[in-house]
Amino acid sequence: MNDRIRKLREQSLKAKPKLSAERAELITEFYKSGVSMKEPVPVQRALAFKFILENKAICINDGELVVGERGPAPKATPTYPEVCIHSIKDLEVLDAREKVAFECDESTKKIYRDEIIPFWQGKSIREKIFSHMSGKWEDAYQAGIFTEFQEQRSPGHTVLGDKIYSKGFEELKNEIDISLQNLDYHHDAKALDKAEQLRAMNIAAAAMIVYAGRYGNELNRLAKSENDPARKDELLTMAGICCHVPAKPPRTFWEALQYYWFVHVGVITELNPWDSFNPGRLDQHLYPFYEKEIRSGSMDRERVMELLQAFWIKFNNHPSPPKTGVTAKESNTYVDFSLINLGGLKRDNTDAVNELSYLILDVVEEMRLLQPSSMIQLSKKNPDRFIKRALKIIRTGFGQPSIFNADSIVQELVRQGKTIEDARDGGASGCVETGAFGRECYILTGYFNLPKIFEITLNNGVDPRTERQIGLQTGNPRDFETYESLFDAYAKQVTFFIDIKIRGNNIIERINAKYMPVPFLSLLIDDCIQNGMDYNAGGARYNTSYIQGVGLGSITDSLTSIKYNVFDKELLSMDEMLCAMTDDFEGHNDLKRRLLDNTPKYGNDNDYADSVMKDIFELFYRAVNKRPNAKGGMHRINLLPTTSHVYFGSVTGAMPDGRKAHAPLSEGISPVQGADLNGPTAVIKSAGKIDHIRTGGTLLNQKFIPQVIEDQEGMNKLTHLVRSYFKMDGHHIQFNVVSSDVLKDAQNNPDDYRDLIVRVAGYSDYFVDLTSELQKEIINRTEHDGF
Amino acid sequence: MVNFMITGTIFKIKKFAIHDGPGIRTTLFLKGCPMSCWWCHNPEGQKFESEKMIKGENGSNQNEWVGREMTVSEVIREIEKDIIFYDESGGGATFSGGEPLSQPDFVDQLIIECKKKEINTLLDTTGFAPSDIFLNLSRKVDFLFFDLKLINDKEHIKYTGISNRLVLENLKMISKDKKRPSIHIRFPVIPGITDTNGNPERLAEFVKSLDTIQHIDILPYHNIANGKYQRLGMENKLAGLKPPGNSEVETVMSIFKSYGFSVKSGG
Known about the structure:
A: three-stranded parallel sheet; B: alpha/beta
């Protein structure tokens, strides 16, 4: 990278996440003024958006090529009091906490104390949500049965398609006018609602053009006082770009990047959607601009790199808005889940990998930034050199890019009812979630703690942590005569809690539709303009609400353990098992060893355990799939945890698989930590027994140390491993190339790391099987390799 | 007809074996070996009977059993589980040990069944077995990994416990055989033992004289097995020996290269 990029990157890395009161002050000022009191809610929201964009600080960092910041400076992070009010206590916690902190000085606290909190108290979406939830919902939420994505963040989680690369906002405004003209007040009872919604979109579109123009003016002003002629030129060019896009469609690569970035800032300024926003198939969208400019010679490869790198830094400047409480626990990270998709398939079903796909991978490798995240979509049609290029980055221990199965994504989307072309334009966002980019509102609604519900089943509906009856009375488990009756009881409890969750989801979706429309985001997602409906109200072409199952490995091993040890082998009674669990296995060492060492476990290609996993999958799937949401779409499942498996583990007691109380649950569809003893092919075979096509995404992590893939042959074999998994329709796989810290931890806690493979000398072995001297040697070697 | 009920003793089945031949493989470690090489890195594979080994490091008082009897059909079921990976990567099954040729009927049945199922097979052997057995099994597999350690017989007897005469004879025989598989020579670099006194050169000359073998794999000594000797209560005669450095390995490689072989370090 050149000096300019190095400086900007340093600035971004060094900037400390800090709370900014700017947005909260502006929106409070706007609503306090009462100017929009007479307007309908969507128009109020649009006018508020306009007020913010007209008044927020313009931030142009020294040397920048792509401009626009959500806050007044890099990592200055706003809050969204209309969604969630942060109390003074919250601000203190955010400031002081060890992980994922946000600096908050006294003057900011004062503004919140004096202005923000008093005005918004009683008006926020969060308060509305909690006041509408039933006692049962509240109980389950407090118990850690599920989380709620929308309690501090607005519904977002969508990805931009290709729309902005051929249309300017002026054209979108024309489309709005056409929709307005086409309203049929004679036959459409909703015509007025639609008119209001469209008027709001129109205001939001105009506001964005104004915002870009403010940047244009400031850039012009800076150019005047700039002494360096090269930078002066650059500033003038940038001013020209900001006056052109987003009003008009982009003509150059640079304009395309700047256009997207304005749109990104718009979406995350309008509200705090979770996940933030995402350009999606970036290599596809930018390729026509790239090709044209490279061919005409108006830009060389280095300039392309530089612009992309400048663009990358903008993402890194924007940490996820502050989260507190359960929401912080389930997603304890600064990452705001912009996941750049590369490769995959084109709309016409041909190989989409192009020159730019590789070039963007170069950018990912060189930038090594937390944000944006990156992934490759690997289709059977994509060349092996594409995945090998990605593996070369993965083996540096960076955890990016992750690898997705493009062919499965298409099948998943088509199964959900998308057209085949829309499916091919889609991809995965957030962690692993499938979506039809540019055309779908697909939101995550909350994580769902499958093992906890089993704990409650084993206690006849009582949560042993609080001794409260929160589930159904499905019977004393000591009275169950067969495994089937136990499973049946568990199934009833799962359905009971899913019903509570879905009821809550549908209320929350309506609250957001009614009180928190997003006219700006609605401009961007088809077919909100044509339908005259908001993104949050079902305006998108497709509308999906996901519930994310967590702890598949833990619940599988727990049910398997009881099936095997209590019912099939009759090695102990249910009572003995329950007593040992109550004692957290203290004084039951032999039993614990039996459960850990001599009981079938998911992740070993063992059909005994894997068939239990399949039963659980079917149960969860049937409880959720196709249940209507409040936007005319349906609920679907996916299987991923972010960091919720740690939170869910902390509220869950000892389990029949030998897991101690409060330890983390298994993550994604990965086996329980250390339970897979037969290597990655066995894990993949087990995971391959899940019917991935009926999900909206699954997450599989595998640990390796870099030496496993240090040479070409190792790389080839890893490629074969991935291709094999994808033949089984596996959705996603990520290789964690582990650090020496992890290895040291593995030395001290070998039971947790029995699956960790290390390259020794010309061959690989399980780390825990190595002598302590050799372990030390490998740790040193890893550190020597730059970790 | 394959006899699926024949049993053998196995001390480890390793999946995702990526250094035991081409592609992603499943390696079967057969228990028992007629040799007792000082540098053996699988000492738990030497005895023919199942045995106890202390579990884990750090003075644990628990034992684990090493070696269990399995039928042909059980082993085939394990091998078959990873067919999708073999197909994708050009991998298959590797028979190693111990010495697989010491359980010839069992291994024979496994190889025949793998062939029938179109699973690629590799025999990883010391070459020490009655010639008819050696020849019969070597002809059936796709790859033969053949260990050559020391050319001087006295030295060979000292460090492995047996004479190398049969080993060299067997190699000669298979190298001239029309039905020979693809052969790799595996040469362990044991500092001060196999890499001195002109041993690499003389071995190279011998292999060169056979005319049909191109591949030499160099396996540098590693003290990986020190802990296993302790856990088995076995004497480790090379306890203090340091692994060869890169330059020592390079030197050995260049010797073999100078004879025109295709030389690779590691498995």
